[in-house]
């Protein structure tokens, strides 16, 4: 009897802990009660006129309801009468009430944008959310919820939004066996699941809501290294199930396809894109897909890249391959996203190859082909210059591909807020049409009249309960979506939104966390690959430092030595006129600026130049000392991030606090690992001491070179 009583008491103590346990599963849509002063601002808005509509409108309506209930503890009162309502939401509001300027505003917001406006109707102040489509209503509603979540005052609103890119996609590198290429948050949420689809629906809805909340309107459900099986009827049916589930959230599904599918699963002799039989095969396949998924988005293709088959296997061009698929998709409004990530081991400087292959094809792609280009010319490094393809293909729709999953930035163990990286690229001036021709403007349709504007991010999402492994990696999903909607948003403002929505409004929490986030990416650059160094990581896993790696018969362009070229003379990749001349691919004045070490930005100097160890940097230090200072600074930055975080104890739930604290410890240890490995190794060439005022290395080079890296801890 006594035992029972004790158990009961224990149980009562545990229940609230369970109820308030914070796994991170709800992402930034937690809808916990807002601070009282913020609640007060919205309390008067519970009377809502929500114009009835499609399932997309229902999603918006449910979301608003959920948000009000959670954020201010008020149930919405849905009215069918405009007069009685303080919040009016719908496409037809302007025909029902006289709202000054609403029609004009709606003309500016396109097919997915929205208007949020304060207005006086019948002597009473009201807020109107309107749009031209149901999708616009969905996004407008989410934007209004975000205003609540971030504590913005609902007075005097006059917001007109239109997304900068039409297609805002996630790319999942998910294999059909459930593994995820370069995924660090567990297995695939889509494939090879033990649970029934029906039992997973709620989980998928969180994914869908999160995407809709930032405006992501498309998702590629499988890896670009595509399994041909994905085009079998069974898988098409599975795609259809996902499409049905995501449709109300205005998210289309897309598929990565293998170029050799006609031969592999279709039993054809080959997959030559100019052979009629092959073309017919694709047409039939596409018809089969649209039969089940009438709004299917299209294909993503990695061809003749890293061993994948492609049109060049038959002596055809990328354009011929892409156009064949485009023709099959065209009658249904589908598109082909054809990746420009190509490089061959025998070719020229890897950084030049994609440009060399694709730029001559400008104008040869069908209108429904978009060439998808990685942000940098090599491969998602912590820092790269922008890919010179941007701006160089006036007559082709080009889309930028960012990597949200942190393949080269510490997986899901290191805190690296990526919006500054993405902004740096988007705002880089290509100069192709004079100053101000930023990468963003060359891709969003404002400089070139391209048929489609689009952007993609390689997802960092997996089966982990918090979706992304590191709680802060959620911010990268969020920020990518926000920038895809509006690339002019500032990285720090996006971070503040996310912190408030995800953790807390308390200024003495928000400010230090913002500070941590905003310095995090540069910290990673500094402890991994400062001054334009790149590709120094381990061979297969891409995690830790291995600038020394030498693998017999390996492709030279997969070895770090190819990139750092360290010798007794110096370090760096000579891409100037006297080297590979990659600078030539950039427009003036960039070409000359990059070409000359004296004018090349120092944060890219070893990307473009091979310089002697005693080269004088603008600081007056030798290159060697400068390199040392950068590596040490990176480590110090992580330590500072740790200190700032530890001070926040008690300000948020213990669970997420501990989790982040633990990850920061890993990051701090590994920053030292990177620093010591790179500097001790490069020191074997420079022969110069690490400045004595700096902390001594804590490792021996030999010890680090013998270290076996165990991937299993990092998946
Ligand atoms: O970054 C590299 C990765 C590969 C990836 C490839 C690509 C999907 O290491 O894992 O393959 O890029 O983008 O195709």
Textual characterization of the structure:
The protein is α/β, with parallel strands linked by helices and 715 residues long. Helix content is 39%, strand content 10%. The chain is built from 23 helices and 16 strands. An eight-stranded parallel barrel has the order 7-8-9-10-11-12-13-14. A six-stranded mixed β-sheet has the order 2-1-3-5-4-6. The protein has a two-stranded antiparallel sheet with strand order 15-16. The model is unreliable at 15-19 (pLDDT under 50). Bound molecules: 4-O-methyl-beta-D-glucopyranuronic acid. 4-O-methyl-beta-D-glucopyranuronic acid (GCW) binds next to loops.
Give keywords.
alpha/beta; eight-stranded parallel barrel; 23 helices; binds 4-O-methyl-beta-D-glucopyranuronic acid
Number of strands: 16
- The shape is globular
Strand arrangement in the largest pleated sheet:
7-8-9-10-11-12-13-14
Helix and strand composition category: alpha/beta
- Most strands sheet: 8 strands, parallel, barrel
Number of helices: 23
Portion of residues within helices: 25-40%
User: Radius of gyration in whole Å, from Cα?
Assistant: 27 Å
- Proportion of residues in β-strands: 5-15%
Kindly report how far apart the N and C termini lie. 47 Å
Low-confidence stretches: 15-19
Attached small molecules: 4-O-methyl-beta-D-glucopyranuronic acid
Nearest-integer average pLDDT: 96
């Amino acid at each position: 009897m006594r035992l029972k009583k004790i158990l009961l008491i224990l149980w009562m103590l545990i229940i609230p802990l369970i109820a308030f346990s914070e796994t991170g599963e709800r992402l930034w849509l937690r809808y916990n009660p807002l601070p009282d002063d913020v609640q007060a601002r919205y309390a008067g808005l519970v009377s809502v006129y929500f114009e009835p509509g499609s399932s997309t409108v229902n999603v918006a309506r449910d979301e608003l309801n959920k948000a009000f209930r959670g954020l201010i503890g008020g149930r919405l009162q849905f009215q069918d009468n405009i007069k009685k309502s303080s919040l009016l939401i719908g496409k037809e509001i302007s025909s029902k009430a006289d709202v000054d300027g609403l029609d004009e505003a709606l003309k500016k917001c396109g097919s997915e944008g929205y208007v949020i406006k304060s207005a006086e109707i019948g002597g009473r102040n009201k807020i109107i959310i309107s749009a031209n489509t149901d999708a616009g209503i969905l996004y407008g509603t989410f934007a209004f919820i975000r205003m609540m979540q971030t504590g913005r005052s609902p007075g005097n609103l006059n917001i007109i939004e239109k997304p900068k890119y039409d297609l805002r996609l996630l790319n999942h590198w998910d294999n059909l066996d459930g593994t995820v290429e370069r995924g660090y948050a567990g297995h695939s949420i889509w494939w090879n699941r033990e649970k029934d689809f029906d039992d997973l629906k709620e989980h998928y809805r969180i994914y869908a809501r999160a995407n809709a909340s930032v405006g992501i309107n498309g998702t590629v459900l499988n890896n670009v290294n595509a399994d041909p099986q994905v085009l079998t009827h069974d898988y098409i049916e599975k795609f259809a199930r996902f499409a049905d589930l995501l449709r109300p959230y205005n998210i289309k599904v897309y598929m990565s396809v293998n170029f050799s599918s006609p031969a592999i699963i279709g039993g054809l002799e080959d997959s030559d894109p100019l052979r009629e039989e092959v073309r017919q095969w694709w047409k039939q396949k596409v018809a089969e897909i649209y039969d089940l998924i009438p709004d299917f988005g299209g294909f993503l293709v990695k061809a003749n890249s890293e061993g994948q088959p492609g049109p060049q296997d038959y002596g055809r061009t990328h354009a011929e391959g892409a156009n064949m698929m485009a023709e099959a998709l065209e009658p249904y409004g589908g598109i082909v996203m054809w990746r420009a990530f190509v490089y061959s081991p025998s070719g020229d400087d890897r950084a030049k190859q994609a440009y060399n292959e694709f730029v001559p094809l400008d104008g040869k792609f069908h209108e429904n082909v978009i060439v998808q280009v990685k942000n940098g010319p090599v491969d998602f490094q912590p820092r790269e210059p922008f890919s010179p393809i941007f701006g160089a293909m006036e007559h082709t729709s080009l889309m930028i591909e960012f990597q949200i999953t942190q393949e080269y930035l510490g997986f899901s163990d290191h805190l690296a807020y990526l919006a500054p990286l993405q902004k740096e690229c988007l705002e880089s001036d290509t100069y192709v049409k004079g100053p101000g021709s930023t990468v963003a403007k060359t891709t969003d349709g404002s400089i070139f009249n391209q048929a489609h504007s689009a952007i993609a991010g390689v997802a960092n999402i997996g089966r982990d309960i918090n979706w992304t492994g590191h709680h802060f990696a959620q911010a990268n999903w969020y920020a990518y979506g926000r920038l895809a909607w509006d690339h002019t948003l500032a990285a720090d403002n996006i971070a503040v939104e996310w912190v408030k929505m995800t953790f807390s409004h308390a200024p003495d929490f928000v400010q230090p966390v913002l500070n941590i986030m905003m310095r995090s990416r540069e910290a990673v650059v500094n402890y991994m690959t400062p001054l334009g160094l790149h590709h120094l990581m381990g061979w297969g896993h891409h995690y830790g430092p291995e600038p020394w790696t030498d693998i017999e018969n390996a492709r030279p362009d997969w070895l770090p030595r190819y990139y750092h070229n360290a010798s007794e003379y110096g370090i760096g990749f000579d891409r100037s006129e006297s080297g590979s001349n990659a600078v030539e691919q950039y427009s003036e004045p960039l070409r000359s600026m990059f070409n000359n070490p004296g004018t090349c930005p120092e944060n890219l100097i070893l990307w473009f130049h091979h310089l002697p160890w005693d080269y004088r940097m603008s600081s007056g230090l030798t290159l060697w000392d400068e390199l040392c200072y950068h590596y040490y600074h990176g480590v110090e930055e992580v330590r500072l991030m740790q200190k700032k975080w530890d001070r926040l104890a008690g300000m948020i739930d213990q669970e997420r606090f501990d989790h982040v604290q633990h990850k920061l410890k890993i990051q701090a240890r590994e920053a030292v690992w990177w620093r010591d490995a790179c500097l001790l190794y490069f020191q074997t060439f420079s022969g110069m001491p690490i400045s004595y005022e700096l902390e001594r290395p804590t490792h021996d080079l030999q010890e680090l070179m013998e270290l076996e890296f165990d991937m299993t801890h990092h998946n």
